[in-house]
Amino acid sequence: MSKPMGTIPAGFAADADGMLLVGGRRADALVAQADTPMFVYDLALIDRRIRDFRAAFQDVDLHYAIKANSYQPVLRHVAKQVDGLDVASGGELRLALGAGGDPNVISFAGPGKRDVELEQAIASGITLNCESEGEAERAFAIGDRLGRTPRLAVRVNPDFEIKGSGMRMGGGAKPFGVDAARVPALIRRIRSAGADWRGFHIFAGSQALDPAALIEAQRATVALAAEVSQAAGAAPPLVNLGGGFGIPYFNGERPLDIGAVGAALTETLNGRHAILADSRFAIELGRWLVGEAGVYLTRIVDRKESHGRTFLITDGGMHHQLAASGNFGQVIRRNYPVAIASRFGAEPDEETSIVGCLCTPLDRLADDVMTPRAGPGDLVAIFLAGAYGLSASPQAFLAQHPASEMVVGG
Ligand SMILES: *Cc1c(COP(=O)(O)O)cnc(C)c1O
Q1: At what angle do helices 115-124 and 133-146 cross, to 10 degrees?
Q2: Residue list, ligand 1 pocket, CB within 6 Å
């Protein structure tokens, strides 16, 4: 019995020869330019996402969480169009600045920032999202030493979480952020130390497809920001509401209805507490902006049979697309949408398993899926490769051929 796969996202078609087109370019022509395995990102699909966001959310800033995809051409393209970049390491900060990111709208979250990273952040004038009281103290000391005023937002560890389907309430111990109850004291300390308090960062989860879960989390987040601000006696310039917008990876999942989320947020913000009257609000997104715009193209090297099953063995694998192999936090392995790029749209006529070239049973790209007949030389496309592909995979594992990256549609 074959297993289902996720739905191929909108924006991909075949030409008259049945060759997959990415951004209007033939997959075989793209890999001829740079070899397989390769990631191709269609900038026009990213632009469409940004437009969709702007249409659904009035007067809410859009930030890009660059860890989803920090390939310079993608980052430069996105940086020009969004209102802020969120980084999570000194390395990402350099990438963001290198891509033309404005320091005034870059913020840096992440537990375990080293002193050199705090220095780099304070010297470049970006905002640090403080993850603890201790980190704030280190930032004051570094600011004094550099003769610069640190710009500090407080990352709040909320007592709620967005879940894929419904929100799980209940306070939790986490290494991220400062427990909400201690935040007012930290804000007072930041202000009395003479630092520039920028507001809040409140991130309650990722990969939500249920608008009701997101709506509820955003309501709770705005309420929490108001409560903590009142307790601190200060109004936050910016409230970063987190993100968590998911994309459908697997069979049966449906795209998030952002129109519903936007309408509800407008209502929530219209009714917000007076202490937030002059605050700006931001949503930070990674995968929702870039995930569907990327395709991972890999070439079939071998086709073989074993105990009645057919394996298509490719020159790519989990060292570039860890998430598609099912080894990036998934509990149960399910199939991402995949296709034989060189026979895109052809009727599937056999059951195959598509695997990578790594010498480990973990390296599976698609299990028992229906595909059109394919063999050595044919190209395989793994969709939803625009986020957490190369940036989140163990490329050095087994010293395999590195993946190339390319943008189209810019
Ligand atoms: C990873 C991360 C994001 C981006 O998550 P996506 O699911 O890709 O949208 C946003 N904010 C913070 C704080 C993160 O750690």
Answers
A1: 60
A2: 65, 67-68, 86, 109, 203, 206-207, 243, 284-288, 387
Helix H segments across 129-201? Answer: 133-146, 183-192
Q: How far apart are the C-alpha atoms of 232 and 143, rounded to whole Å?
A: 23
β-strand pairing of 61-65 with 84-87: parallel
- Render pLDDT for 19-36 as a digit per residue (tens, 0 to 9): 999 999 999 999 999 999
Contact status, residue 114 vs residue 134, Cβ threshold 8 Å: no
Q: Could you tell me the distance, in angstroms and rounded to a whole number, from the CA of residue 163 to the centre of ligand 1?
A: 14
* Helix, strand, coil % over all residues of the chain, rounded to 5: 35, 25, 40
Q: Which of 159-173, 291-305, 371-385 shows the lowest mean pLDDT across its residues?
A: 159-173
> Which of 134, 186, 178 has the alpha carbon at shortest distance from 159?
178
Tokens of 341: 């790029």
- Tell me the angle at which helices 90-98 and 72-79 cross, rounded to the nearest 10 degrees: 70
**Is the separation of the CB atoms in 274 and 222 below 8 Å?**
no
Strand pairing report for 38-42 and 404-408:
parallel
Give the Å distance between the CA of 269 and the centre of ligand 1. 22
- For 343-369, write each residue's pLDDT tens digit: 998 999 999 999 999 999 999 999 999
Protein residue with its CA nearest to atom 5 in ligand 1: 286
Find the 16 Cα to ligand 1 centroid distance in Å.
Answer: 39
What spatial distance separates the first Cα and last Cα of the chain, rounded to whole Å?
Answer: 42
Taking only the tens place, the pLDDT of each residue in 243-302 is 999 999 999 999 999 999 999 999 999 999 999 999 999 999 999 999 999 999 999 999
Mean pLDDT of 42-63: 98
CATH 3.40.50.620 for the 70-285 domain, yes or no: no
d(CA 193, ligand 1 centre) in Å: 30
Domain with CATH 3.20.20.10 in the chain: 70-285
Task: Find out whether 403 and 320 touch, Cβ atoms under 8 Å.
Answer: yes
Amino acid at the residue 341: A
Domain 13-41+292-408 matching CATH 3.90.79.10: the answer reads no
